[in-house]
Design brief:
The chain has 340 residues and is of the alpha/beta class. It folds into 3 domains: 101 residues, Rossmann fold (3-Layer(aba) Sandwich), CATH 3.40.50; 102 residues, Rossmann fold (3-Layer(aba) Sandwich), CATH 3.40.50; 79 residues, Rossmann fold (3-Layer(aba) Sandwich), CATH 3.40.50. The protein is 41% helix and 14% strand. It contains 15 helices and 12 strands. The chain has a 4-stranded parallel β-sheet, sandwiched between helices. Strands 6-5-7-8 form a 4-stranded parallel β-sheet. It has a 4-stranded parallel β-sheet with strand order 10-9-11-12, covered by helices on one side. Strand 5, helix 7 and strand 6 form a beta-alpha-beta unit. The radius of gyration is 20 Å and the shape is globular.
Length: 340
């Protein structure tokens, strides 16, 4: 089965962020029914990240952030975990659920943050300073997690850093923008790895100013992976889960969103009656992650029918990578609500 066709962004309304031609309704309904039937047959649970295409979010059992979805998977009695996100997220699910079969629609759904931090280079940097205490954003490979002292998410990174040993030199990997924001919040000096989310750095100060002139009364929510120039303009810098909470509580009828455009679908479902405006980037009225959008409803069906691609990790990597995740959970009293 092929990928959904893409088309230039249309203009003229609040849904202009949609950049692909949707499946014809009969095809969408048939595929969705087939996927749900396979789910029952396999005793599977379907997990979808906030940035997935709407049709995948709509058939999922849970929609949320990478850690929250993995935690949901740890509680399930399902025999198969179908993870609709990017590869490192499926790896995290496997680390937390080593006895379960974990599959994902597209093995090539990667992450620029994960690619920016190869485990051998991190290990070399750690060996250059034995006093480093490595705080690692969850957007990384299992091998990098295995080298880390503690994992964090965008929502709990401030708490994790504040709880880090005061006598150690902190090394924050791999997102330098999230790390810089955490330093601003905590005052704790850290060495930052040079890595970033390619999608979030496409938001610019100029782009935010343009959309704010069009919606001057709308508050702006920005993910901490955005650059400092964008964060300074935001009314709230927060993780994806906290965006949902903010929007539910805010009386504002319209809210500007500076994160991957898949988030808009969930916000519209959970906060009906409000207008959510994606902050544009230079060449588009929205911002989509090319990796997240590799997953399609057709690929979801195929991976369930074939039980492939599978996530496989060695027992050693699972055991080593699990320790810093468990340390994070010990420090963070609300790991699900605060996940990034």
């Amino acid at each position: 089965m092929g990928m959904i066709e893409t088309a230039p962004a249309q203009t003229g309304g609040p849904s202009d962020f949609v950049t692909r031609v949707p499946l014809p309704p009969p095809r969408l309904d048939a595929l969705s029914r087939d996927i749900l039937a396979l789910k029952r047959k396999l005793n599977a649970v379907l997990l979808a990240h906030n940035y997935q295409v709407p049709e995948i979010q709509d058939v999922a059992d849970y929609v949320g952030d990478s850690l929250g979805l993995s935690q949901q998977a740890a509680k399930t009695k399902a025999e198969v975990i179908v993870f609709c996100g990017v590869h490192f997220m499926a790896e995290t699910a496997k680390i937390l659920n080593p006895g379960k079969l974990v599959i994902l629609p597209d093995r090539d759904a990667g992450c620029s943050l994960e690619e920016s931090c190869p485990a051998p280079k991190l290990q070399a940097m750690q060996e250059a300073n034995p006093n480093f205490y490595t705080v690692t954003y969850i957007n990384c490979s299992a091998e990098v997690k295995a080298l880390s002292d503690v994992i964090c998410t965008s929502g709990n990174a401030v708490k994790i850093v504040r709880a880090s040993p005061p006598d150690r030199d902190l090394l924050f990997v791999p997102d330098e923008n999230l790390g810089a924001w955490v330093m601003e919040q905590t005052g704790r000096k850290m060495t930052l790895w040079h890595g970033s989310c390619y999608a979030h750095v496409e938001f610019t100060h100029a782009g935010v100013m343009r959309i704010r002139r069009e919606f001057p009364d709308a508050p702006l929510l920005a993910h901490p992976e955005c650059t400092r120039g964008v964060r300074l303009l935001a009314d709230e810098v927060c993780s994806t889960e906290k965006m949902v909470d903010y929007c539910k509580k805010s009386p504002a009828p319209a809210i500007l969103i500076a994160t991957e455009a898949g988030m808009i679908h969930r916000l519209r479902k959970e906060c009906p009656g409000k207008q959510f405006i994606p902050v544009p980037i230079e060449h588009c009225r929205c911002n989509e992650c090319k990796y997240m959008k590799l997953n399609t409803l057709e690929k979801l069906y195929d991976c369930m029918a074939r039980l492939s691609p599978r996530v496989e990790l060695s027992r050693e990597i699972i055991e080593r990578a699990r320790r810093p995740i468990e340390r994070m959970l010990e420090i963070s009293s609300q790991p699900l609500a605060n996940a990034g």
